[in-house]
Amino acid sequence: MKEFIESEFRNISCNFINLQALAPQIEKVSEVCIEALKNGNKIMFCGNGGSAADSQHLAAELVGRYKMNRPAMNAIALTVDTSILTAVGNDYGYDTIFERQVEGLGKEGDVLVGLSTSGNSKNVLLAFEMAKKKGIKTVAMTGKYGGKMKETADFTINVPSDTTNNIQEMHIAVGHLLCGVIEKEINA
Q1: Is 185 exposed, middle or buried (0-12, 13-18, 19+ CB in 10 A)?
Q2: Can you tell me the distance from the alpha carbon of 174 to that of 157, in angstroms, rounded to the nearest whole number?
Q3: Low-confidence ranges of the chain (pLDDT < 70)
Q4: Which residues contact 165 (CB under 8 A, 6 or more apart)?
Q5: Kind of pairing, strands 111-115 and 75-77?
Q6: How far is it, in rounded angstroms, from Cα 93 to Cα 70?
Q7: What is the CATH number of the domain that holds 182?
Q8: What pLDDT sits at residue 22?
Q9: pLDDT one-digit tens code per residue, 113-151
Q10: Which domain, by its residues, includes 17?
Q11: Total structural domains in the chain?
């Protein structure tokens, strides 16, 4: 058991060291988010399962606070309104649950961050398509290969793993880094 635990920690450590190569993409996405917020726009997050939880977590860091006391920032997770999710899922199909919200809530100049370990989540892909129609920048946070989201997003942060739990660990670390940069630059 101890060997397994130590092996897992070595793997996690290597993954996080390899994240450094994504610094240019993370910087660009930070700049896009900062520009949106400074212009009175919002950042929307969406994903399924663990990625839904990460979406909520990151929106909360921006609306609440990450590391500093400051005014709330305009961010929302499209994963939290059970009435919308169930009504849209029932009436139009589960694949449209984020697309409909982007259509109704999104506006030109906003940013949509889609989290998907595979990069192939149909409901996130449809939300990206709607975002493009509305002039909303799209950011894909995916695993190593990026899936279809890599092809459709304006920006992709594809973390260096193809294992779900490791991808999710790195997504939250990258998300925290984005929140930290955004918070620091907007409140400088």
Answers
A1: middle
A2: 9
A3: none
A4: none
A5: unpaired
A6: 39
A7: 3.40.50.10490
A8: 96
A9: 999 999 999 999 999 999 999 999 999 999 999 999 999
A10: 2-186
A11: 1
**H/E element, 164:** helix 164-186
Which of 126, 114, 115 minimizes the C-alpha distance to 164?
A: 115
In this prediction, residue 188 carries a pLDDT of: 74
Q: What is the dihedral of CA 119, 123, 128, 134, to 10 degrees?
A: -170
**In this structure, which long-range contacts are made by residues 151-160, counting pairs with CB atoms below 8 Å and at least 24 apart in sequence?**
152/125, 152/128, 153/114, 153/128, 154/32, 155/25, 155/28, 155/29, 155/32, 156/25, 157/22, 157/25, 157/26, 157/29, 158/119, 159/15, 159/19, 159/22, 160/15, 160/18, 160/19, 160/21, 160/22
